[in-house]
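Late entry, written up from scratch paper. The run itself happened at the end of the previous shift, but nothing got recorded in the book at the time, so transcribing now.
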Amino acid sequence: MTSDWISKPILCDGEIACSAINPNQSLLPFRTKIAYRATLLYNAWQAYACDGRQMSLDDFDRMEDFETRLSDASLDEDRIRKIIDDFGEFIPTFLSNGPLLTPQP
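Output as recorded:
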């Protein structure tokens, strides 16, 4: 996969919970929004996977690794794009082909 998961809106009850990010622009200024999007997608994945019971421990570890890597203050544009692409490889395709409808918490 690629950075597709950042380029589509995420909806919650018909409202945009997180707007799309243009992957052709500089992504460093959007680090917080990217982390928020990743969390929404990951939580939606857990909900689709019967509250996480069908996810492996490796899936939880990979999400934690993503958050750790994204929070690195020394990230440059190339590294953040690599992290985004890695997450795109990790998250199931159906989640990144939005617009994703997430339930109200």
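Helices lie at 31-48, 57-70, 77-90, 93-96.
(Scratch paper discarded after transcription.)
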